[in-house]
Q: What sequence folds into this?
């Protein structure tokens, strides 16, 4: 053990030191051991039997059960179990993660006769549940749901053209006949298809939800599951919907989903086998792996969300100069940050594989589109992702700030972005101050009354540096446009007039060829790496998750977006009673 | 007695009215003035510079118009036993309370009973054997209990229960009338834990009171008359020592019921505490007003109950 401690110290002092052959062999052996235990994502569909109630859990309640009018995204969590969407994301399979490609759901097929028109034919045998006497789900339901989303949806501005949102892509929607829906677009908009597969936009609800029943408290199902019991702040009970058009392909009878807000309670419930899967805090992974040899362990994919440091861009702000923003980026020790929050050293020590990736200005989980900042392909801006205090100092001197910069740094200290979030901010503050180039005054604004209006949505009209989180998006376009385009609804960088960035963002949204579109987004990343409008959080390693072996097909058909996959992931799971131990 | 009860009930009515006015004024006037209101929070999620949206939301949630009139509307509903609806899910508060209040009452009452069961015997034994080993053991135990928060103990029990015995508390809550066995299984541990911390304080009060009473002349007289030790303790000493203890117990009940939120969260129980906490964080005014009123009713009732119990314990007290 002492030797191990010595090794650690040496590693900390000399990160470039090469391990001896013996050490290397030992490490490789350890990694092989762990790899052999890592869950192989075996497809057991051929042995699948029907029945069984999956024991899951969630950490938070929903504001209400109406995803189209709730002032919070939480309502989408519940609704996506029983409200169908026009499209759904095609799942990944085994080691190949999902790519964001879409497939039919309520929309059985679709065509695009011209770039600004999209026509969907609905599933011919889709019906609502018994509470609506198995009424067919028709085009009027889709139009009703869209209109409600356009009027009240919290994220309507991502898609809907409105008087106060002239850049929205969707002008109108109409029912051509009972089974046909036509979308009229304001301009050719390639990302509409993934948007229609995403749970936080258009969930199709019956038109009876207007006046016929209170959708905030009651539900009607047209999807694979029904909400059969809901106790506020306690539990959701989902059961198989026998009237779902593909009910014969659903294995489980349902899901029990208690709300366990307390992390240690969820950990205990997993250990006691009362919940069947868990993504623990990464610092608990090694301990759990040792304690629970019977549990399956797997690495998930990289997430597709990146948080940012964003800048106050008021007149006279030092951050109006791109050299200052580049310097901020070069003061961040990305490897140390990732090690701190993803437990990399501990995993390496124990032989657990890690796959660290830096974020560019898009998250490293966007397979096929993400550019590795460490690769030569990133071009001239790649150097801004490497820690280099001397170079940062030169940049500040060139920008006329040789004596350093006195300014504010702001993040919310409350739990809206999770309990770890303030620690992210503390580490960034530490990196910047450690260099001696920044003297920062910490500000912790109130989330609702100060942070959201005066920092997050102020379009740069604040002093200093903000540390910000953002929501997930089904497609990069909504993210790029909202945050980086000069007309974007969030527009953290919109005061930095950058016609090239705007032009690339507009070009990608009009490009229907996936390969060409990815190439445009890569160009944009190269451009952003140079101009550094915001500084992305350092990066990530994919998280380890656990499950008990009686969950058949767990992790085999991989979700692109967990919440949007109740029809493609949860329906493929099955209960292998023969493997259930107590 | 009847006159006294009537007077107290009238006073209770005024107290509750005052509580409702204070809570309403704080929630609907003071907090929005110095901080924000529910609509500001929702509008903040949508985007801050949308006064039209804010006005629309205010209308939708019934928050526009004269605040005083809104108070009287709520009060009118209250007289019809209609506490209104949650702003965010439209669910009738009366229905929600009907489901949740029994859970919290049960937790509080069982917690209190377990506190009494722990503390009274320990306090009596510690007093009778003052400065001997049972006294030291129980006092140490009481100090220890007092220093350990109940929720921490709950987390430790769950964590080590799962580590050592592969055990975790049941997750599917059942009401007593649905499945009594499952109900007891899920309620027993949290109820017991809720009572544990207050039992430490109660034990110390019982001990102190017993010591004081045991030094009284009438106890010495009873002992001189040759009465058996247990008769002296249980018939003469304990009854008199319990008067202040009853006061403390009575006043602890509303606190125990109101303080169950963390236990409800750990054990996934559908009680009032969770309801109040989530409503406060959402600024769900009607729910906060109503739950506060319910807690006020509990406190007033407990006070009245304690006062009315005095004559039963001490015949010298008459109303």
A:
């Amino acid at each position: 053990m002492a030797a191990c401690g010595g090794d650690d110290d040496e590693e900390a002092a000399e990160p470039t030191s090469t391990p001896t052959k013996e050490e290397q062999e030992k490490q490789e052996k350890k990694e092989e051991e762990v790899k052999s235990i890592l869950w192989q994502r075996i497809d057991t569909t051929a042995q699948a039997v029907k029945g069984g109630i999956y024991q899951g859990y969630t950490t938070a309640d929903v504001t209400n059960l109406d995803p189209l009018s709730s002032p919070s995204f939480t309502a989408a969590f519940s609704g996506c179990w029983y409200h169908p969407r026009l499209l759904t994301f095609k799942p990944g399979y085994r080691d190949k993660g999902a790519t964001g490609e879409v497939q039919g759901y309520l929309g059985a097929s679709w065509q695009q006769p011209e770039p600004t028109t999209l026509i969907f034919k609905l599933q011919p045998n889709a019906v609502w549940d018994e509470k609506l006497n198995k009424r067919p789900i028709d085009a009027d339901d889709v139009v009703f749901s869209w209109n409600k989303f356009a009027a009240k949806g919290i994220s309507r501005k991502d898609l809907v053209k409105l008087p106060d949102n002239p850049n929205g892509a969707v002008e109108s929607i109409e029912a051509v006949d009972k089974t046909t829906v036509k979308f009229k677009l304001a301009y050719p908009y390639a990302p509409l298809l993934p948007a229609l597969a995403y749970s936080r936009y258009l969930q199709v609800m019956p038109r009876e939800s207007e006046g016929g029943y209170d959708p905030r408290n009651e539900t009607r199902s047209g999807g694979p599951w029904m909400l059969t019991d809901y106790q506020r702040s306690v539990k959701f009970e989902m059961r198989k919907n026998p009237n779902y058009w593909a009910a014969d392909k659903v294995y489980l009878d349902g899901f029990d989903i208690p709300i366990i807000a307390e992390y240690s309670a969820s950990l205990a419930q997993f250990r006691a086998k009362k919940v069947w899967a868990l993504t623990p805090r990464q610092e608990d992974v090694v301990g759990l792996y040792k304690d629970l040899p019977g549990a399956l362990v797997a690495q998930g994919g990289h997430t597709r969300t990146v948080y940012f440091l964003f800048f106050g861009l008021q007149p006279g702000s030092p951050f109006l100069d791109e050299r200052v923003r580049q310097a901020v980026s070069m003061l961040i020790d990305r490897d140390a940050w990732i090690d701190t929050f993803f437990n990399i050293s501990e995993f390496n020590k124990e032989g657990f594989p890690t796959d660290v990736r830096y974020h560019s200005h898009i998250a490293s989980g966007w397979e096929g589109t993400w550019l590795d900042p460490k690769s030569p392909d990133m071009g001239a801006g790649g150097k801004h992702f490497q820690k280099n205090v001397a170079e940062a100092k030169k940049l500040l001197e060139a920008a006329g700030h040789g004596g350093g910069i006195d300014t504010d740094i702001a993040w919310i200290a409350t739990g809206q972005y999770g309990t770890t979030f303030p620690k992210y901010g503390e580490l960034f503050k530490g990196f910047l101050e450690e260099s001696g180039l920044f003297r920062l005054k910490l500000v912790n604004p109130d989330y609702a009354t100060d942070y959201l209006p005066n920092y997050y949505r102020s379009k740069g009209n604040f002093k200093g540096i903000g540390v910000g989180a953002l929501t997930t998006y089904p497609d990069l376009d909504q993210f790029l446009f909202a945050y980086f385009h000069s007309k974007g609804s969030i527009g953290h960088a919109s005061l930095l007039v950058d016609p090239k960035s705007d032009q690339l963002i507009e070009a990608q949204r009009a490009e229907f060829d996936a390969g060409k579109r990815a190439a445009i987004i890569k160009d944009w990343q190269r451009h952003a790496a140079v101009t550094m409008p915001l500084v992305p959080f350092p990066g990530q390693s994919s998280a380890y998750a656990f499950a008990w072996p009686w969950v058949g097909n767990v992790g085999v058909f991989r979700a692109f977006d967990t919440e949007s996959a109740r029809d493609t992931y949860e329906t493929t799971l099955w209960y292998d009673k023969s493997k259930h131990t107590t | 007695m009847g006159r006294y009860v009537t007077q107290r009930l009238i006073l209770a009515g005024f107290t509750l009215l005052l509580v409702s006015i204070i809570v309403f004024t704080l929630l609907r006037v003071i907090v929005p003035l110095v901080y924000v209101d529910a609509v500001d929070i929702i509008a903040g999620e949508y985007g801050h510079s949308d006064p039209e949206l804010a006005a629309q939301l205010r209308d939708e949630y019934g928050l526009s118009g004269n605040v005083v009139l809104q108070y009287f509307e709520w009060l009118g509903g209250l007289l019809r036993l209609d506490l209104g609806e949650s702003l965010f899910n439209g669910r009738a508060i009366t229905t929600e309370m009907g489901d949740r209040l029994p859970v919290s009452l049960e937790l509080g009452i069982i917690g209190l009973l377990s506190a009494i069961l722990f503390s009274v015997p320990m306090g009596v034994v510690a007093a009778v054997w003052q400065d001997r080993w049972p006294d030291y053991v129980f006092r140490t135990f009481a100090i220890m209990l007092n220093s350990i928060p109940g929720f921490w103990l709950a987390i430790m029990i769950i964590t080590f229960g799962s580590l050592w015995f592969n055990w975790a508390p049941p997750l599917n809550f059942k009401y007593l009338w649905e499945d009594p066995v499952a109900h007891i299984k899920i309620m027993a541990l949290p109820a017991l834990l809720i009572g544990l911390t207050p039992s430490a304080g109660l034990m110390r009060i019982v001990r102190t009171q017993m010591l004081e009473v045991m030094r009284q002349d009438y106890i010495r007289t009873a002992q001189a008359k040759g009465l058996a030790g247990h008769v002296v303790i249980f018939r003469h000493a304990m009854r008199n020592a319990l008067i202040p203890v009853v006061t403390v117990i009575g006043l602890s009940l509303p606190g125990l019921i109101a303080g169950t939120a963390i236990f409800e969260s750990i054990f996934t129980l559908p009680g009032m505490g969770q309801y109040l906490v989530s409503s406060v964080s959402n600024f769900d005014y009607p729910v906060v007003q109503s739950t506060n009123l319910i807690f006020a009713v509990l406190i007033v009732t407990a006070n009245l109950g304690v006062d009315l119990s005095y004559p039963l314990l001490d015949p010298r007290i008459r109303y």
Remarks:
- Chain A touches chain B at residues 55, 57, 61, 63-65, 70-72, 154, 157, 164, 214, 216-217, 231-235, 256, 258-262, 264-265, 267-269, 271-275, 291, 448-449, 452-453, 457, 489, 582 (CB under 8 Å).
- The two ends of chain A are 35 Å apart (CA to CA).
- Chain A has three domains: 53-258+549-579, 263-300, 308-347+357-540.
